[in-house]
Design goal:
This protein is an alpha+beta fold. The chain has 7 helices and 13 strands. The protein binds fe (ii) ion (FE2).
Length: 277
């Protein structure tokens, strides 16, 4: 689609709300993930910076912020529904990701279900089993309750247990809800669509894990990863709803990834030396 050519992406960046463009930079190790803000770089500077530097741009909620992406998201979902009548995604949220050669997204998990549609470039994705060996229930609970961000403890020997997929344009990969994963771009610019969504079971699982976090703190309850629905889920879902009413998730708490650089025409400018990569 013309939308995904350099010119199409520049036009999209030009009309896209600037506050909804997530800006990140990284080195080779998980401690080098940095969140930034857009400075005086214009859309064509941004595309050149993606090609020449090591940045990762996420046009958040692009299905609701841009009509052209919204139409594309709608047609993806309706084709999927035609093939799978039981597929009823809730709160679909499409992030359009434009990322540099060799950019990476370190080991993490997402609360929602995810489908990654790959459009340009080449990337390798590692998907790990959703088992205690790869993510402890306590760490999953931290992500679901927003006490931590999506990063979870990682050891290099986890890779031996991963399913490794070399994604080429036109391919899509999806995985079990909350399964850990990481992404490594090959030596070319990448464009992908990260399509997050929930299902009734996915919402119930997230709420069961949310309740487990509270039960662990209050009663030292030793929860598991809630691999499949159990008879306890309705009670846990009800508990989670009450807890969220009593103490809504505070989205203003300082992030463990504060904004620490500005993406200017000249490239990333770090707020202080300690953030430099
Ligand atoms: Fe992810």
């Amino acid at each position: 689609m013309p939308l995904f050519t350099d010119e199409g992406l520049e036009a999209l960046l030009d009309r896209y709300p600037r506050e909804d463009i997530g800006v990140y930079a990284m080195g080779d190790t998980p401690d080098t993930w940095r969140r930034g803000r857009l400075g005086n770089a214009n859309p064509s500077d941004l595309i050149s910076m993606v090609k020449e530097g090591r940045v990762w741009l996420n046009l958040r909620a692009a299905n609701t912020k841009d009509n052209e992406v919204g139409d594309l998201a709608g047609s993806i979902l309706s084709e999927m529904r035609a093939a799978m009548p039981s597929f009823r995604p809730i709160k679909p949220d499409l992030g359009l990701i434009i990322s540099s050669p060799n950019a990476r997204v370190f080991y993490h998990l997402d609360v929602a279900r995810v489908m990654l549609f790959h459009v340009r470039g080449n990337k390798r994705i590692y998907v790990y089993p959703r088992t205690e060996e790869f993510v402890r229930a306590k760490d999953l609970e931290g992500v679901v309750t927003h006490e931590t961000e999506e990063e979870i403890p990682y050891k290099p020997d986890f890779d031996a247990g991963a399913q490794i997929i070399d994604l080429q344009p036109g391919q899509m990969v999806s995985w079990a809800q909350n399964a850990p994963h990481k992404v490594e771009n090959a030596d070319d610019m990448n464009v992908s669509l990260s399509f997050e969504y929930m299902t009734p079971v996915a919402i119930a699982r997230a709420n069961a894990v949310y309740a487990n976090a509270w039960l662990r703190k209050a009663f030292k309850y030793n929860a598991n990863l809630e691999p499949k629905p159990t008879v306890l889920w309705p009670a846990k879902v009800a508990l989670a709803r009450v807890l969220k009413k009593l103490a809504p998730i505070d989205k203003d708490t300082p992030s463990v990834f504060p904004h620490c650089f500005t993406l200017n025409k000249s490239g990333p400018v770090f707020d202080s030396e300690k953030f430099a990569i």
